[in-house]
Write a structure and sequence with these properties.
18% helix, ten-stranded antiparallel sheet, alpha+beta, 39 strands, 14 helices
């Protein structure tokens, strides 16, 4: 067999290789050029701004010299083209800030706000027929536990009205990670169980999204100060990058329309070694503007009961008729129960016209300015006042939001006249089905719950309520982004699967649900979860996947300045030992600490009551039983405490023995270590009383 003769290249072609390499090098993107950098006060985090190929802007984040966020691009897709190329640094400045401010209510009384700020101004080289380039600033605030950045558009001739179709903001996590997330743009709003997947398998996620890198670092990506803007979601891009996906508006693909000057919400990344570092971070609150309302002492954190769980059990109804829950007699019964047990509020749903028939499909029939005939609002408010109990109002819109707004001033005036100082609002409909009507009789267009129009609506409700000294607890809400700092009457909200899914959900909330919420949804802010179902049964006897002790621990674990004792009074009478903790537990705190925990597995919280010396502990676990050793070093040294312990019994299990429950006391000091025994699906609650 013969072999082909090798062919040698001609000498003249050999000289083409260096020229070819030179051509490829010339055509390759230029190396990124560093433009500016800033580090956190303690030197833990560093943000670097850089210019990439074609004058594109990018940022990266390092933690103690190691990459956390790899180079990630910044920019916009506007109504008249892209704003991302040909950007030149026009100037930069740096500053530092350090203050300690006081929350009127919250997880902790005093909050330190300590950051270094980098402001970089950019100008676009004129292109595309423009004689003047567009300008904007990027502002970074760098904390030891995370970063926030936003775009600021000054007033300028080149851009008066800005129409944003999409942000081109990216978050490229450096290295593989595990993600805990819920989907965006699905029909059931935020009310989904959390998925745990590799970061590479995230599709389109809502924020906050929580990540744990393969190196063990914990991150949460979210936003702060969502005002007059579309909510941000995150979509998977090439190479594992997460890209901003703004919630659409109704205007032909435009998500945001603003007039300069304006600023976007802050895009946030919280970073910590422990999962508990995320839950202890104040980053989201600190990136919001200070209190604009002044003295809000008229709002008092408190516990409440109400006509609610029976409606989800379907033993009573929202609609009028023989099973109507919101009657004068039934509400008076709840007022008496609240007064007897030291609870301040009574929630009543179904009190106003519009619930009869298909309320879900026709919110335009709701009347928020008068009660139904069998509910005497004025008499009940007066009776409650004699007992130290306030009615909690309820405004369910069924997403006929423009119809609600037209009645809003009169509806809130009605409440104010009757001493109703908290209102629960609701927006029950499929996502993307908010009904907007700009003029009476005009066309109805559809909006998303987290679009710009609804951002404006929620702020309008909160501001109108504040004028009348009324606090707002929003259900089916726009996401929480820390605006409770600016508007301290925005006290709580839903925005996740709450307790009602245990009444009728298929499936009900699994044992891991609350340990997921702490490190995901709860990073955004307070949640009206409505704990305390001591009967452990839903509609038709559906079993709640929890032990009795866990229901008590939720009062410490799931934070809200208003906490509902959600079960029926007769069920609490059947479990007096457990009910005692619900009566005793505080709702407002001087300090809050995460003592232990992992995302979706378990968590242990300790909180000190506001203005008092008592501490409360709550621990919950998933489907796995756990035994933990808990140092009590958070207690004041040198003092003795009576630990009132509410725990799972030896054989407790959410499926087979949920009512195996022990209440006991022991004397402890800060030098002691306490064993925590958590059954499968279980928990433990403790009250520490100084002796």
């Amino acid at each position: 067999m013969t072999h082909p003769r090798p062919v040698r290249p001609a000498p003249r072609r050999r000289h083409l290789l260096p020229a070819l390499f030179a051509l490829l090098i010339a055509a390759a993107p230029a190396a990124a050029k560093e433009l500016a950098r800033a580090s956190s006060p303690g030197g833990v985090l560093t943000v670097v701004l850089e210019s990439q190929h074609e004058g594109r802007l990018a940022y990266r984040v390092e933690r103690r010299g190691e990459a956390v966020i790899a180079p990630s691009r910044l920019g916009f897709l506007l109504g008249d083209g892209r704003l991302e190329r040909n950007l030149e640094l026009a100037g930069q400045s740096a500053s530092s800030f350090d203050e300690t401010w006081e929350q009127p209510w919250g997880e902790r009384r005093f909050v330190r706000n300590h950051y270094n700020e980098l402001r970089a101004g950019f100008a676009e080289r004129p292109a595309g027929g423009r004689s003047v380039g567009r300008r904007f600033d990027v502002v970074f605030r760098v904390y030891d536990d995370g970063i926030g950045f936003r775009y600021e558009f000054p007033r300028q001739a080149a851009m008066d009205e800005v129409r944003i179709r999409q942000e081109l903001t990216e978050f490229k996590v450096a290295g593989p990670a595990t993600a805990w997330w819920i989907p965006a743009f699905e029909w059931n709003r935020e009310e989904y169980l959390y998925s745990r997947t590799p970061l590479s398998q995230v599709a389109v996620a809502q924020t906050p999204i929580t990540l744990r890198t393969d190196r063990g670092l914990h991150l949460s990506i979210h936003e702060a100060a969502l005002v007059d803007y579309a909510g941000m979601n995150l979509a998977q891009g090439d190479g594992g990058v997460l890209r901003a996906a703004l919630t659409p508006g109704d205007d032909h693909g435009t998500a945001v329309v603003r007039t300069t000057p304006f600023a976007t919400p802050w895009r946030t990344v919280q970073i910590g070694d422990r999962a508990g570092d995320l839950a202890e971070s104040n980053l989201i609150l600190n990136l919001n503007e200070p209190n604009r309302l002044g003295d809000v002492s008229w709002f008092r954190p408190a516990k409440y009961v109400g006509v609610w769980w029976s409606l989800h059990l379907d033993t009573e109804t929202w609609s009028t008729g023989p099973r109507h829950g919101a009657t004068t007699a039934n509400t008076k019964r709840y007022i008496d129960f609240a007064a007897a047990n030291g609870f301040r509020g009574v929630l009543v749903e179904g009190w106003n016209p519009g619930w009869d028939g298909d309320w879900f499909g026709n919110g335009w029939r709701f009347d928020f300015t008068r009660p139904v005939p069998d509910f005497d609002l004025e008499a009940l408010a007066a009776y409650g006042a004699t007992q130290g109990v306030h009615l909690i109002g309820h405004h369910e819109t069924a997403c006929a939001v423009s119809h609600y707004e037209r009645q809003l001033p009169a509806a809130l005036d009605l409440y104010a006249r009757n001493g109703v100082d908290v209102v629960k609002t609701g927006y029950v409909c499929d996502a993307g089905d908010i009904q907007r009507q700009d003029r009476e009789g005009g066309p109805v267009v559809r909006e998303w719950h987290e679009g710009q129009w609804m951002s404006r609506h929620h702020q309008r409700v909160v501001e109108e309520a504040a004028k009348r000294h009324i606090a707002v607890n929003a259900h089916e809400p726009i996401k929480d982004t820390g605006l409770r700092r600016t508007y301290p009457n925005w006290i709580s909200r839903e925005g996740a699967r709450g307790m009602e899914f245990n009444a009728w959900g298929q499936p009900p909330n699994p044992p891991e649900h609350e340990a997921n919420l702490v490190f995901t949804r709860m990073l955004a802010g307070p949640m009206d979860f409505t704990p305390g179902i001591v009967s452990l049964k839903g509609r038709g006897g559906q079993q709640i996947e929890s032990t009795l002790a866990k229901q008590l621990a939720l009062y410490v674990v799931i934070y809200s300045p208003i906490q509902m004792a959600a079960d029926l009074p007769e069920h609490y009478a059947e479990h007096p030992d457990a009910f005692q903790f619900i009566r005793d537990v505080a709702v407002d705190w001087d300090q809050s600490r995460v003592l232990d925990g992992e995302v979706g597995d378990y968590v242990v919280f300790a909180r000190k009551a506001r203005g008092g010396e008592e501490w409360f502990l709550g621990a919950v676990t998933d489907e796995a039983a756990r035994r933990l050793r808990l140092p009590l070093s958070f207690l004041e040294p040198g003092r003795r405490y009576r630990a009132e312990i509410y725990r799972d019994g030896e054989h407790a299990h959410w499926r087979t023995a949920p009512f195996d429950f022990v209440r006991e006391t022991r004397e402890v000091r800060s030098t002691d270590t306490l064993p925590l025994v958590l059954a499968a699906g279980g928990g433990q609650a403790i009250r520490f009383v100084p002796l």
